[in-house]
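EI: anyone free to look at a 852-residue chain?
SC: sure, send it
EI:
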Amino acid sequence: MSLTDTLKNALTGVLNRYTLTVADSGVVADVEDFKGHEGLSELYHYTIRFTSSDPDIQPRQVLRKGATFTMRTLPDTLAGALQPSATMKTVHGTVTAFRRLSGSRDQVTYEIVLQPFLALLQRQYRSHRFFVNKSVPDVVAQILTEHGLKGWESEFSLQKVYPKREQINQYQESDLAFIQRLLAEVGIFYFFTLQPDTQTEVIHFGDNQSALLFDKKLMINSPSGMSDSGADSVWGLGVEHNVVEANVTTKDYNHREAQYLLHSAPADMTYGEGDDINYGEVYHYFPRHTQLGDKWDPGSETANFYARLDHERFLANQTTVTGKSTDSTLFPAQVLTITDTFPPTLPASFREQILLTKLNFTGSREVSLQVRFTGVPYYERLCWRPPLLPRPKVTGTMMARVTSAKEAEIYAWQDDAGHYRVKFDADTDEKSQGQESMPVRLAKPYGGDAYGFHFPLIQGTEVAIAFHEGDPDRPYIAHALHDSRHVDHVTEKNSTRNVIRTAGLNKLRMEDKRGEEHIKLSTEYGGKTQLNLGHNVDAARKLRGEGAELRTDDWISIRGGKGVFISADLQPDAKEQMIEMGDAIRQLEQALTLARSMAKAAISAKTTEGDVLSQQRLSASLSDLTAPGMLLHAPEGIGMVSARALRIASGSESVGIMSGDNTDISTGQSFTVAAGGSVSLLANGQGMQMVAAKGLMTVQAQSDALSVSAQKDINIQSAEGKVTVSASQELVLTCGGAWIKLSGGNIELGCPGNILLKGTNVQKLGAASLDIAPVEMPSGFGGGFILTDEAGKPQPSTPYRITTAEGEVLQGVTDNNGKTALINTSFPSSLNIEFGNVKASTPVGKNSGGAE
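SC: here you go
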């Protein structure tokens, strides 16, 4: 053997085409063999076995340390051995596993696993994390930054704009699994390259063919013992074809725009070219999109976007290409062109470009590098998508607290749809007050179009958050809970009470304790406005009454548009109709019968009869409330008392007061009766007494005659004074044909019989006269008015307002005949009259009345 051969063999024994360097470890490694796997949207994984003279390498020396694995060429000649070898491929990553395999006196065999730094993210596990108002790329970038990746260590080459989602939740996932799931859901793939300056890995994200790497070419050449002249090639090519799904349709529901149907068109990304070999319609109802999107160019995360994305995933499995190579520079995301011989021997599947999706590298000191690759045909209009990863399902509920933008507010923030924001107890990230979650719907037992069941939640209230179909990104408030800070208002102390109470202390309380059942509906406004029913108690639960009570320190209004019936009649167990009023109707009929009878008596006595007709109309209206009226009835009496004034009035018809026995009117001061028409008093069965126990009694007919008649004696006496009878024209006394007439200053006596003059003396003197001042009768001025239209038709039920010259304002409503009330003034004057918007002025004099 020559010296040259001896030197070459010696050099070959010490030279190694593979090197491994672990930063800051002091480890000198001699690579024995390795296995490597790289994939599109996968972490690369290299298992490297090496020997070292160090018998005890500590885990701290290598674990989590940066490491570089290099594949180089070996020299073919002795002279070449003296030259630096060429580096073909460099893999940089982090040591994630370390093993000691065996050892001897001279060397020890070790093994490490080399992965990208991103692999460490699988060690960061979070049971819960909540991202609000961020897009998928935003979330991925945030997590990478939190783990210390610099901006240049990741690159987003995205063609689409991804919307900010209301909320994205990480649930029972590592950071790595979380971002891998998010990226796969929207069809973003990733791969790694080496940064040439720092010689460290860079992660690339893409959603379109433009993010892939092109211009990689290899010739086909099977190494069957023939020399390949040192040129890399491919061989052992295989292809597999599968029937895949023909089209995809997806649908979702967006409660914010419930009127829109989010049902995509069927997506066929072969555009009909796969009809002969593909089969099956796929329908997804996935809660993940809020808009429909255009059929041909949909925006990201819309219904049509997801349908197209899903079909691209299926088509990625239709054709699979496999092969072998010696080229160490192959890596995922490369588009490979295989150059054929002439004449061509490759099938059609290999004549087109191939997108590399998986690669396996093997090599050792003794065996040269071999690369096995898997790929899919590359298409300009069809993009490879990573497989969809399962989304975790939330079981049960999560605890949260209702929040608001202002900490001091009692009531929680709500949007225009009534949604709330909450802060999850599991959330440890700092977020702005009131922005801790997406707007969350509140589940209710009943709801509809602007109606339903909704008690506004109070800030700080504990709520249980459930999730639609267990989807962590679709939370809703299932129910509210009490806790030690927000105690329950029903406890062992009042366990028989069913209570609804709001933060403003509005309350509905239903007591079920036997023998003390009651209902209380109350508000603090108006000094405790309350409706109490049943066994009513005070704050100390002492009985304060039984039955029903409506009370307030403010005003109470009882209004019934069709009528009001207030009764003290017993109705056991509420078995009768609500407005059953048989007893009250009988009382009405009895009173009306009495009124009719007394009206006939008045006619017989030639006095003014009562207005029976209006009372008949009243009875007809009140009977079963056939017209809007109010009826009060009590079998044992009704009392109306007031410390101040009390009024009974009728606007246009009569006021009837009837009693089957006495009608007693007592007053501590004056008793005044004033009528615009006549006053008629009739005592039909017994006598009438008019007595002034003290003071003057005056009886006047101020503008007409006064007639006093009696069937029997008339007795006029003055117990302690005189009786004066005066007439301005003539005074006549007559009885049995005899008379005395005083007229014109003369006295005329006459009789059919004798005139007897009895007395001690009869004295005749000269002429004399006695003058008594005549009584001055007061006079008033007044009139009434009838409102008519242009055709002269009376206008009933029309509001009016009359202002007198004295400044008095009189208001009312015209009666059924269009008449106003009678207007009286102390002197003739003009009146301002307003009917609705019409104003008029008219004089009122002594004889005015019946004006129109």
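EI: The longest strand covers residues 87-103.
SC: 👍
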